[in-house]
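Hi all, long-time lurker, first post. I run a small reading group and we've been trying to get comfortable going from sequence to structure in the token notation. Rather than ask abstract questions, I figured I'd post a concrete chain and ask someone more experienced to write out its structure so we can walk through it together at our next meeting. Sequence below, copied exactly:
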Amino acid sequence: MLDESTAPSTELNSLGFAKPPSETRVVVAMSGGVDSSVVAAQLAEEGYDVVGVTLQLYDHGAALAKKGACCAGIDIHDARRVAEEMNFPHYVLDYENIFQEAVIDEFADSYLGGATPVPCIRCNERVKFKDLLETARDLEADCMATGHYIQRMMGPNGPELHSAEDANRDQSYFLFSTTPEQLSYLRFPLGHLPSKDATRELAAKYGLAVADKPDSQDICFVPNGNYASVIEKLRPGAAEPGEIVHADGRVLGEHNGVIHYTIGQRRGLGIGGLSEPLYVVKLDVDNKQVVVGPKDMLATRTIPVREINWLGDEAFTSRKEWHLKVKVRSTRPPREAIIRPISETEAEVELLTPEEGVSPGQACVFYAGEGSRIFGGGWIWRGA
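-- Answer (accepted) --
Happy to help. Here is the structure in token form:
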């Protein structure tokens, strides 16, 4: 069975519809990588009416030679080749303007504001699961499938979002803002696989040229992970120099732009020769100051969260407290927390064990205390 999206039934196909695969149209979001290529190939082999769609999100002319990022020119070529090999239609949609307005501009402004944004979440939320999903509906597709490592399971109250079987590949942190309405339309056929090796084995089985293609590493419009260079290009004059100051007020040195620093950073501060290791504890954009201090200043217990997308069965505000686990960085495991709703979209999150390096602009994703279910999440901000 391809997708664990429904309860077992002899009347339903593997995507959960009570009709033959040949009468079930599915749009597959194809990035040109091995994951989405395998999804498209497997669905095509099972006999579904597959339509592949690839988004051109930025000027890929400058990125043709760049490896390790999705949606560049070579990736469009790879997606098109998979469609030709598996004999289904493939379209490339120019979403450059939408991507610029919905993702890149906010990324730049957020970074300039001293936050640490996660543009991949905004891209899923505002482009792939919004505009592309609407395009899939316009194409009269029954559903849209992606190569994300996450699971959609049917619960007593409808579709639920669950972590991937393989914790090392799980992408739930980047998909917390998927709404119940979107979840009813989406399918994630790879979420139940035990490992990425299993995906590559499927790619080899279908004879796909992308079987050994490396995974994307960077944000697609940030070459080599160099955020600052992209910000300087998007917002000329943003890298204005200023002071590096200790939390106690001492001026320790100078920097060449707040945008070159992130909360929790220790290396590359240029203030050696001190008796204690110092970390970036605050970015004061208004005063052009990078504030440093001892490691214990990074510990955070209370986190204000807003723009919450709630995926629980009961209303978010139906309880004064939710005892769940939360993840405040994609690379860290979920930690126990108490979530106290302020409104339907705002809450105060209390971490039972303080976390270091919690930064505005990051996501705070809610997980069940036991099991794999995801209850949504929101965005960390500075508070009122």
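A couple of things your group might point at:
The first strand starts at residue 25 and ends at 29.
Confidence is low (pLDDT under 50) at residues 60-71.
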